[in-house]
């Protein structure tokens, strides 16, 4: 492997509190010599919140699972063929993976053998900042210069970028996700050259994995530079052919916009939301949300007065009020910061009548109940959604 750091590639840090308590501590105690690997070490060094803790061990998975069970942890064989089990203590999961080396790769999956060589296992990682490992004392191993790359905001592949992407083309999309979250300054030119050549390999990825990476990218604080880089390298056209010609609408979204709103702003206005949802295998909820975000009729005008705002809130899909305002701003460029503040401060109006009110007024059960309530609800909307129960009941026939 090229460009290793000089031996010994290790340094010591003060171990974080989470390393000495709960499931991570129990796993490391049950597996002497095991190390925390990947994202937890990376984010610890970057001064970011650590979400999930993954552990690697120089034991075959069956032996690791047996030792974890002997230590009193619950063990689930979540990925035994790939060397991974999940240990759980007090509802806290920790993924434990045996050290591996690749025997065969096909551009997405690998056939592996178990290893006892930590450097060999680190060489399988995608980026240098993800190849770090740390033991229970705070000793950190850095075989490929990940600490320096992390500090410099340099997303760099371990070894030859073209080789690493040919092993798993999902790494093409992961590069942009990590560039959005950790990158600073100009991206690695060797990586970009290899990415341009690897674009045809994206066709081998499953739709679910493509959407997973796009969604994570769009959750970054500012995904626009990474998305623009995807466009420049040809990756955006391959992964999301429905994208608009530029990032203008995406740039106009405020920082608190959700990933689906960002996706919607990135799409061409004529995008068939249902077809896109089918292609990327959206969940039913994601499908519904995207359709609503792409519907111009649901977006609020910039200068709504009080009555119009209440009417809009009463009709807008619940939970999407802010994102719909964001989409309106992205579409026409009019600042809606004040409107978003008013939306947040205005309780959602709720029509005060129910079916029992119509029955109590003498309306016979059946379609007449819905028709009567519909007429009164329209009267309530026309009046700015302020009429109470008694006033609405008085409007029933």
Automatic annotation (TrEMBL):
The keyword RNA-binding applies. Transmembrane segments: none annotated. It comes from the Bacteria. Residues 34-156 form the Poly A polymerase head domain. Residues 188-245 form the tRNA nucleotidyltransferase/poly(A) polymerase RNA and SrmB- binding domain. Its cofactor is Mg(2+). It holds the Pfam family PolyA_pol. The keyword Nucleotidyltransferase applies. Keywords: Magnesium, Metal-binding, Nucleotide-binding, Nucleotidyltransferase, RNA-binding, Transferase, tRNA processing. CDD domains: NT_ClassII-CCAase (cd05398). Gene3D superfamilies: Beta Polymerase, domain 2, cca-adding enzyme, domain 2. SUPFAM superfamilies: Nucleotidyltransferase, Poly A polymerase C-terminal region-like. InterPro entries: Bact_CCA-adding_enz_type3_sf, NT_sf, PolA_pol_head_dom, PolyA_RNA-bd. PANTHER family: CCA TRNA NUCLEOTIDYLTRANSFERASE 1, MITOCHONDRIAL (PTHR46173). Belongs to the tRNA nucleotidyltransferase/poly(A) polymerase family. This is CCA tRNA nucleotidyltransferase.
